[in-house]
């Protein structure tokens, strides 16, 4: 804070003040990191002041977009998947081995960056309705990208199925160097374990073990399960709450144990396939990474596209925080939960990725931020 310096006019006390500042900066900067992998994890926990002031709860967000390889929580998972495969002898650096994955973007970006750093190739299959920034970025990272029409999981060309097939084809093809490894983020133990070993303990340390609730969306379920499995035994009273976007069956899975609302009849499943501009969270099938922690999820909160958009704008306007759609969903759900719990509680959620990755889709749906005519209250946002 250089305002301290501006208050000093003689040069000797200015120097003394500067020495103090440099010393404290050195302490905070920490050690030299070992490549991009050294920049994964230990992300800051940020108090979101506007949401905290408005609700009387402390709303804290783990800044996962500051993970330093692919800039999302998926850095933790991608590194875990590759380390596990290396340990099992399934990947050998610089041998032509290629990691295949079906992803809406974030996991692919993390895998592509870490593969580069470790001497592997990456081949990413993704739905073609995801923001174009993500596939552009993947290509710049040297990954092979296959964009496919969105399809149900029973379809062999669905992006996850296609990645699995491509990995097998690679291994069977004698003309291709190395082998293919299917990363399998939805089913692999390496996913929830990365959050059990990293995100969960970090939240516990950063809050000094004092928190009332953890709120998160689920794309594979790895984050919510891993964090819940770590925190719940230590803090039996903590509430683990799922933030669920339109079209996802997980809300009903948490509330009723099945993917559709049993009170509704015929056609429910079809109605769930609604269009949404939220990317990265929401699932309509059972995945190991969600199921492994499902029993620990206490409640679920639905969030609409409009609420997420309004929250994303709110966070820029009031806090200067520019995030993507899943982070906005998390913040809406955290605010709704704060209203339910009442003032005086501490709630932790995640900021998953930057708004820069969503300019052409999520952020394209909203008017530019600014101007007093934009003023909406938080109450209006969570009830919109
Ligand atoms: N946010 C973003 C941007 C994501 O891409 C994902 C995962 N696809 C998530 C959140 C959800 O994380 P998880 O897979 O651990 O449930």
Automatic annotation (TrEMBL):
<keyword id="KW-0472">Membrane</keyword>
<feature type="domain" description="Tryptophan synthase beta chain-like PALP">
    <location>
        <begin position="37"/>
        <end position="353"/>
    </location>
</feature>
<dbReference type="InterPro" id="IPR001926">
    <property type="entry name" value="TrpB-like_PALP"/>
</dbReference>
<keyword id="KW-0663">Pyridoxal phosphate</keyword>
<comment type="similarity">
    <text>Belongs to the cysteine synthase/cystathionine beta-synthase family.</text>
</comment>
<keyword id="KW-0496">Mitochondrion</keyword>
<keyword id="KW-0808">Transferase</keyword>
<dbReference type="GO" id="GO:0004124">
    <property type="term" value="F:cysteine synthase activity"/>
</dbReference>
<dbReference type="InterPro" id="IPR001216">
    <property type="entry name" value="P-phosphate_BS"/>
</dbReference>
<keyword id="KW-1000">Mitochondrion outer membrane</keyword>
<dbReference type="GO" id="GO:0006535">
    <property type="term" value="P:cysteine biosynthetic process from serine"/>
</dbReference>
<dbReference type="InterPro" id="IPR036052">
    <property type="entry name" value="TrpB-like_PALP_sf"/>
</dbReference>
<dbReference type="InterPro" id="IPR050214">
    <property type="entry name" value="Cys_Synth/Cystath_Beta-Synth"/>
</dbReference>
<dbReference type="GO" id="GO:0005741">
    <property type="term" value="C:mitochondrial outer membrane"/>
</dbReference>
<protein>
    <recommendedName>
        <fullName>Cysteine synthase 2</fullName>
        <ecNumber>2.5.1.47</ecNumber>
    </recommendedName>
</protein>
<keyword id="KW-0812">Transmembrane</keyword>
<dbReference type="Pfam" id="PF00291">
    <property type="entry name" value="PALP"/>
</dbReference>
<keyword id="KW-1133">Transmembrane helix</keyword>
């Amino acid at each position: 804070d250089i305002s301290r310096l501006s208050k000093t006019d003689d040069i000797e006390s200015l120097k003394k003040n500067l020495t103090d500042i440099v010393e404290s900066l050195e302490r905070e900067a920490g050690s030299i990191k070992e490549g991009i992998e050294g920049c994964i994890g230990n992300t800051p926990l940020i108090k979101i002041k506007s949401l905290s002031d408005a609700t009387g709860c402390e709303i804290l967000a783990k800044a996962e977009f500051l993970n330093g390889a692919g800039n999302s929580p998926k850095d933790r998972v991608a590194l875990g998947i590759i380390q596990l495969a290396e340990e099992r002898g399934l990947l050998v650096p610089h041998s032509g081995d290629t990691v295949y994955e079906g992803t809406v973007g974030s996991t692919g970006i993390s895998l592509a960056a870490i593969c580069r750093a470790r001497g592997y190739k990456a081949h990413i299959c993704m739905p073609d309705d995801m923001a174009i920034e993500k596939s552009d970025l993947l290509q710049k990272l040297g990954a092979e990208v296959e964009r496919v029409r969105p399809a149900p999981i029973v379809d062999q060309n669905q992006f996850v199925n296609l990645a699995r097939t491509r990995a097998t084809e690679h291994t069977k093809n004698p003309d291709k160097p190395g082998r293919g490894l299917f990363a399998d983020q939805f089913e692999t133990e390496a996913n929830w374990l990365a959050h059990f070993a990293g995100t969960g303990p970090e939240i516990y340390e950063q809050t000094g073990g004092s928190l009332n609730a953890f709120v998160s969306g689920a794309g594979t379920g790895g984050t919510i399960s891993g964090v819940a499995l770590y925190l719940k035994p230590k803090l039996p009273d903590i509430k683990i709450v799922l933030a669920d976007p339109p079209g996802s069956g997980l809300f009903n899975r948490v509330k009723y144990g099945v993917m559709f609302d049993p009170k509704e009849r015929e056609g429910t499943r079809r109605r769930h396939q609604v269009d949404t501009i939220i990317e990265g969270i929401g699932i309509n099938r059972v995945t190991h990474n969600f199921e492994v922690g499902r029993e620990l999820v206490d409640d679920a909160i639905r969030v609409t596209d409009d609420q997420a958009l309004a929250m994303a704008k709110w966070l820029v306007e009031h806090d200067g925080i520019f995030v993507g759609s899943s982070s906005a969903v998390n913040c809406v759900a955290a605010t709704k939960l704060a209203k339910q719990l009442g003032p005086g509680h501490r709630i932790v959620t995640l900021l998953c990725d930057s708004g820069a990755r969503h300019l052409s889709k999520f952020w394209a749906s909203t008017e530019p931020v600014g101007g007093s005519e934009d003023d909406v209250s938080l109450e209006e946002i969570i009830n919109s």
